């Protein structure tokens, strides 16, 4: 039985009769961290010319444990990330998937009880003379991130670690005509799913808010795809998560009223908020879910003071 070693575009492969296996000289390499009640991993897309590199921090709490959104609610600490990236690049802020409300005793937290991914994009710095291809095509990218987080159940555990990933240069990366190794295919699938779970902007994503006595009223048109009749019948539900910490009394219920084409969500103000310091524009995320609380869609909402 003949075994032939050949070369194709810098990639070696072995053929055994009609079956060939391609070995890429460099592959995206990362290693998951197993912490106390949590697993984390740094994911990466394949590096391509004229395209941003997408990275993701995969976070998987154990069953009955949870982590926190950027506004954690009544308790907890959101994941914090400090990046170490190659010279000539810049990295975006974390993109958070739509959170869920997590009740415990008389408190309400905002976060995640299941595996989720926090996304960022790595791009060449603006104003650099180097073109994207000059920066990215010749050298592998070694990227690391220092993380700190809290994972909670009846008690909370805080930990730190550093995750890293090595991304092959464009000249060594698999081309679109080649079959990706299984771990790259998995990463690509995970990053695409994470993008789907991000809150999205819509034509109805702007509204107004007002403060009256000890309540705050959020008013906006329902985004496309949100069924107001199903909400009225309690077969579907919406939850609004303000980005500003200590704005609302998180454990207080959100009352929902329909006013023509608009919806008004009213919630008690936090006892810690200074009404004079509430900014003129507030942002938040609207979660659309079914009766069981399962995620359907999420929207970015921006509101100016009325």
TrEMBL record:
Ranges of residues in domain Thiol:disulfide interchange protein DsbD N-terminal: 50-164
One Pfam family here: DsbD_N
InterPro entries: DsbDN (IPR028250)
Superkingdom per UniProt: Bacteria
Name used for this protein in its record: Thiol:disulfide interchange protein DsbD N-terminal domain-containing protein
């Amino acid at each position: 039985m003949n075994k032939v070693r050949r070369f194709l575009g810098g990639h070696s492969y072995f053929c055994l009769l009609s079956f060939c296996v391609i070995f890429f000289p460099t592959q995206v390499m990362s290693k998951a961290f197993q912490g106390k009640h949590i697993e984390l991993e740094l994911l990466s897309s394949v590096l391509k010319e004229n395209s941003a590199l997408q990275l993701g921090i995969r976070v998987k709490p154990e069953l009955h444990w949870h982590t926190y959104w950027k506004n954690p609610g009544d308790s907890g600490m959101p994941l914090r990330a400090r990046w170490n990236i190659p010279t000539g690049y810049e990295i975006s802020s974390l993109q958070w998937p739509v959170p869920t409300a997590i009740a415990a005793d008389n408190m309400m937290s905002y976060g995640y009880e299941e595996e989720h991914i926090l996304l960022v994009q790595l791009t060449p710095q603006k104003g650099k003379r180097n073109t994207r291809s000059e920066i990215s095509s010749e050298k592998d990218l070694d990227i690391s991130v220092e993380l700190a987080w809290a994972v909670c159940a009846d008690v909370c555990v805080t930990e730190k670690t550093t995750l890293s990933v090595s991304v092959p240069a464009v000249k060594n990366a698999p081309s679109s005509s080649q079959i990706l190794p299984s771990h790259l295919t998995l990463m690509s699938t995970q990053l695409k799913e994470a993008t789907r779970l991000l809150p999205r902007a819509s034509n109805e994503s702007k509204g107004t808010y007002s403060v009256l006595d000890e309540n705050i009223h959020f008013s906006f048109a329902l985004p496309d795809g949100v069924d107001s009749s199903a909400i009225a019948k309690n077969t579907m539900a919406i939850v609004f998560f303000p980005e500003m910490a200590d704005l609302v009394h998180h454990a207080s219920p959100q009352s929902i009223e329909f006013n023509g084409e608009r919806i008004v969500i009213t919630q008690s103000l936090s006892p810690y908020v200074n009404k004079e310091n509430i900014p003129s524009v507030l942002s938040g995320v609207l979660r659309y879910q079914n009766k069981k609380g399962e995620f359907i869609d999420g929207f970015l909402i921006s509101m100016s003071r009325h």
